[in-house]
Write a structure and sequence with these properties.
The protein is mainly alpha-helical. It has 8 helices and no strands. 30% of the residues are buried.
Length: 186
């Protein structure tokens, strides 16, 4: 299954490449919410996610010349944002570890990396706990598929892997999530 570019979006990209900042602003407006949510999934902190999304948009703007004509913009952009968020998560983890080693304060437990505002009630807390128990790879693929509603090809583009890898990671993540939830419910 191939993901096609939106014709209107292609025009905005062409205009942006020509230096039209208003056109790029329109692209940003279209994708800022999903970019923030994707970054939040990866780094787990709202402030870091905001910074990662902003930096991702800047990097995407600087890289528009390398964007493949006819390709969908959203997965390409989200891959850049997710990479920036991963870098920030790794950096934050190293800082927390160094602070803990220095004895200044204990390292804070990792917060669940999913923005699940659409979920309500008691199941929300249970699901957050279960998602937090998953590895980042498993958590990312589930959130991208179910909470950000990305297709498998879009997930593959965001995660920088093949669609087959997304399928297998998705299956393993669901299996692991089911096991975690059964342990919680039992």
């Amino acid at each position: 299954m191939s993901v096609r570019a939106d014709p209107d979006e292609a025009q905005l990209i062409t205009r942006s490449r020509a230096g039209d900042r208003e056109a790029y602003g329109m692209l940003v407006a279209r994708h800022q919410e999903v970019a923030f949510r994707a970054a939040h999934v990866v780094c787990g902190d709202a402030a870091e996610a905001q910074d990662a999304a902003q930096e991702g948009f800047l990097k995407a703007y600087r890289s528009l010349a390398r964007f493949r004509d006819g390709a969908p913009f959203r997965p390409w952009l989200l891959a850049i944002v997710a990479n920036e968020a991963r870098n920030r998560r790794r950096s934050a983890g190293r800082r927390a570890h160094l602070v803990a080693l220095a004895g200044h304060e204990p390292a804070a437990p990792a917060a669940p990396g999913a923005d699940v505002a659409v979920l309500a009630g008691a199941r929300r807390a249970t699901l957050l706990t279960a998602l937090g128990a998953l590895s980042p790879d498993h958590r990312e693929v589930l959130v991208l598929r179910y909470l950000l509603d990305l297709s498998e090809p879009e997930c593959a583009a965001v995660l920088g892997c093949r669609p087959g890898t997304v399928k297998s990671r998705h299956a393993r993540a669901l299996e692991r999530l089911r096991a975690v939830l059964e342990g919680v419910d039992a």
